[in-house]
């Protein structure tokens, strides 16, 4: 306890160093994740007869070129729509205030405890919304501030893909001998349980985001690209994601007309039908091998611990923990 106390008192010395190490490690972790996603595609293309360097170059250019094109074409539109949304925010706020007053007056005859609880719920929702907007703005500033660090990611990914076998050999020799075979078995099980799920889920989210943007634009809904991006990103959260993604669209549609609200609801249900019956069975399948009850439990814990980020990471973390627990149990039974 004394050592821990002294260590914490010395935090002004080691905390800045730890912060620098964390910032520098971010592009490497992102690059490793992207390499993990692209490597099976590279191997598939290479096994079909294409030389490995050419396969890497083509997939590399398609992936980062696609991201660059989307960013080049999409970011200005998103900024314009966000700017328009901020300009119209007073009108949206006025409409929202009208709803609050109407709800307040319609619940005034209710018992005092229930009436106060309704007011408290709306106050908490306003505070949560304000906090969320603050975090979004801070996150965008953080991305812009880290631009020069993130720009190295494509270069790291290229060399990791090119020297993938050498990286595996290096990790193999750096790993203690007694951990090598159990480590390989563990990583294979994690890849089987998690790899196809992540790749499939990201593909489904991309398709859903594109379909949502196109559908909202065709119906004349305001800010279709911003809302489509929100729907696509939140769709990665099982069960609760569609509700979270649909909420901003329904709120904005309610300030336009009842007809627009109905259109948005129809679009959301249509997208979920397409995902649940066509996209997910074909692309994701049942690769996760986790019962829905445990997935919901993981989402509840993740949401309570880390909010929206926890909801996004809950299922992958739970899948890794499941594989870890299985291997530890087998290890202790064996010994």
From TrEMBL:
Transmembrane keyword on record: yes
Q: Which residues cross the membrane?
A: 20-42, 54-75, 142-161, 197-217, 223-240, 247-274, 294-321
Instruction: Keywords in alphabetical order, please.
Output: Membrane, Transmembrane, Transmembrane helix
Q: Where in the cell is it found?
A: Membrane
Q: Which PANTHER family match?
A: TRANSMEMBRANE PROTEIN, TRANSPORT PROTEIN YRRI-RELATED
Query: Could you say which protein family the record assigns here?
Result: Belongs to the autoinducer-2 exporter (AI-2E) (TC 2.A.86) family.
- Give membrane topology per the record: Multi-pass membrane protein
By its UniProt entry, which Pfam families does this protein fall under? AI-2E_transport
CC annotations in GO: membrane
State what protein this is by name.
AI-2E family transporter
Biological process GO annotation list?
transmembrane transport
Question: Which InterPro entries does the UniProt record give?
Answer: AI-2E-like
């Amino acid at each position: 306890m004394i050592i821990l106390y002294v260590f914490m008192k010395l935090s002004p010395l080691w905390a800045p160093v730890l912060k620098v190490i964390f910032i520098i490690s971010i592009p490497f972790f992102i690059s490793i994740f992207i390499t993990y996603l692209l490597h099976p595609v590279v191997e598939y293309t290479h096994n079909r007869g294409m030389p490995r360097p050419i396969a890497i170059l083509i997939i590399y250019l398609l992936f980062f070129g696609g991201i660059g094109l989307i960013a080049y074409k999409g970011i200005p539109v998103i900024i314009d729509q966000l700017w328009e949304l901020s300009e119209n925010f007073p009108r949206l706020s006025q409409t929202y205030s009208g709803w609050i007053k109407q709800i307040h007056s319609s619940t005034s005859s209710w018992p005092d405890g229930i009436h106060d609880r309704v007011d408290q719920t709306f106050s908490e929702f306003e505070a949560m919304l304000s906090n969320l907007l603050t975090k979004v703005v801070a996150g965008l500033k953080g991305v812009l501030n880290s631009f020069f660090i993130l720009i190295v990611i494509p270069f790291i990914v290229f060399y990791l893909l090119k020297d993938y076998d050498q990286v595996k050999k290096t990790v193999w020799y750096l790993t203690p001998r007694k951990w090598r075979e159990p480590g390989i078995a563990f990583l294979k099980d994690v890849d089987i349980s998690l790899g196809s799920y992540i790749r499939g889920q990201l593909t489904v989210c991309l398709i859903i985001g594109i379909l949502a943007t196109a559908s909202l634009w065709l119906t004349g809904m305001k800010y279709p690209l911003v809302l489509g991006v929100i729907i696509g990103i939140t769709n990665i959260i099982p069960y609760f994601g569609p509700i979270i993604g649909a909420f901003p669209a329904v709120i904005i549609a309610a300030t336009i007309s009842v007809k627009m609200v109905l259109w948005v609801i129809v679009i959301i249900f249509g997208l979920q039908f397409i995902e649940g019956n066509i996209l997910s069975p074909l692309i994701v399948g049942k690769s996760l091998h986790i019962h829905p009850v445990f997935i919901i439990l993981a989402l509840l814990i993740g949401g309570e611990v880390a909010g929206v980020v926890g909801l996004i990471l809950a299922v992958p973390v739970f899948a890794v923990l499941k594989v870890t627990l299985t291997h530890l149990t087998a290890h202790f039974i064996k010994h």
